Amino acid sequence: MSPRLTALIAMRQDVAALALPADVRARLDAVCDVPDQVVDDFRRPEARKALARTDVLISGWGCPEVDASVLADAPRLRAVMHAAGSVKHVLTPEVWGRGITVSSAAPANAAPVADYTLAAIHLSAKRAFRTAGEYRAGRPRDLTVSPTTGLLGRTVGVVGASKIGRLVLERLSGAGVRLLVHDPFLDAAGAEGLGARLVGLDELLAGSDIVSLHAPLLPATRHLIDARALGLMRDGAVLINTARGGLVDTEALAGHCSAGRIDAVLDVTEPEPLPPGHLLLTLPNVLVTPHIAGAMGTEVRLLGAFAVAEAERFAAGDPLLGEVRAEDLPRIA
């Protein structure tokens, strides 16, 4: 029988309370020996002592960076189960270089983001944000018979067939909309399997009533939606960004939205947060939310439960569902 694993929880205390409530923590305790401490600073003597006997690190929001110096204190470390989305700002390349298995709870975080996006799509199609402002100002409009409202028969373009992008496409399938998708790593057959037609970015922007961004922020995708790209969008179109703020040229978007030509729903911005009084925060046809689309509050337990399930699979020698390989890093968020 293999020796029992020892796990260490590394995240903020408040995050640990939400991600690992009693029932989820009990599952972790069933497969690993887990010290009572929650670590948020690897430099402390007690943290270094705990690292020396750690086989599995359960990381999350507030976990300090795991770099070569941390790895030197963790000679037994075999796996990192990240109870959050992106691992890029937590784990350095040395982790993969040492052959440590890495898993991310991004699949669990995808569902809340997709649900937020779907809500934004439906509300945008009804011009809810623009008309709510008019209603508050005492200028209610009856758009019941307006040909510019409603989702049925519209075209929705999804940029990025990521975990979230795929969920959005799946949730829209059968909703009476035409679906377009752009992703350089997707082929026509794969797009068809998602109920969409694979097109170039320019064709998607020009042909969509609603454009939803789900691409990773990479050097090649920074300001993917710039002034030229925004100019391709049809009048009355809506841009939704729940991915990364840097995908969009903020000032170019502000210009198009202030002219009333397009609407926007932004859960992420560049910079983040936007400075008080920024034009995008004042426009009636723009909704800006403070990066809330992903798991939050009671939903954070979804991330912890996923990470613990991965620890269970790792202990049993089973394949992981959220494994992040070194070769994946250049094309994921």
TrEMBL record:
Superkingdom in the source lineage: Bacteria
Protein name: Phosphoglycerate dehydrogenase-like enzyme
PROSITE patterns, A to Z: D_2_HYDROXYACID_DH_2, D_2_HYDROXYACID_DH_3
Keyword Glycoprotein appears in the UniProt entry: no
Alphabetized CDD domains for the sequence: 2-Hacid_dh_8
This protein's record includes keyword NAD: yes
Keyword field: NAD, Oxidoreductase
D-isomer specific 2-hydroxyacid dehydrogenase NAD-binding domain residues: 124-293
